[in-house]
Amino acid sequence: MGFLKGAAKGISGFVFVILVALLLMNITLYVSTTPTFIKPLFLDIFSKSIASQDITPVYGDALNSCKTQTSYSPPMGNISITLNCSAIKSSSKENFPTLITEALFDQQVYGRQCNGLDCLQMQDIPGFATKSFNQFLLRTLYEIILSVLLFGLFVVLLSKGWPSKLSSLGVPLIVNGLPGIFLEFYKQRIQVGDFQVFIDAIMTLISKCMLLTLALGILLLAASIFIKVKLRGKVKKEKKSKNNKKKREK
Asked: What is the pTM of this model?
């Protein structure tokens, strides 16, 4: 019976470690594919790229077209986007690249439709940066959280005593959080040119998630050690009290 319980605890602990790693990855991907996170980075990268080109002819054509139309589609090869003429008229030539980039993000990147992991197979645009993939990550996030809680409960129930229960949860968290320390040093070595701002933001997000996990794991392990020390002190005190009582009785 003891062997089966130990095996069950070992398997549950191993699965718990894997699930925590999946949870960290899922949270990182989910946050990094929300519009509030990825849109400013997209605008920063691609608006600079468009601004580096001579947009005077396109801007002039847009203003002329908007004299008789309510919308305008700038020439962008195989990519088609539509700009509202009221936005074009209220925009300056300096802000025109940002206007194009916002439309590109809303209409051809984040607004594109795909299905789950199939989004990652999209060739013409970064499929991970779509609303469909973000919603897929949100759905799987709930499932992973439920699994983490379930196997965490198994680990707690199969552990004897609070020190063991807390350390059984704390150690897996520490294992998954430790890489965050190394990422803080390693991310400085990654240089990817125009996409540096995106890589830096992603690495910082991953590092923060891991360091929070590490801090929680250390807290649980410290609580485990504290309780264990207190219990040992209490046992020693009780033994000493019993010995003194026996001596007095003699």
From this structure: 0.80
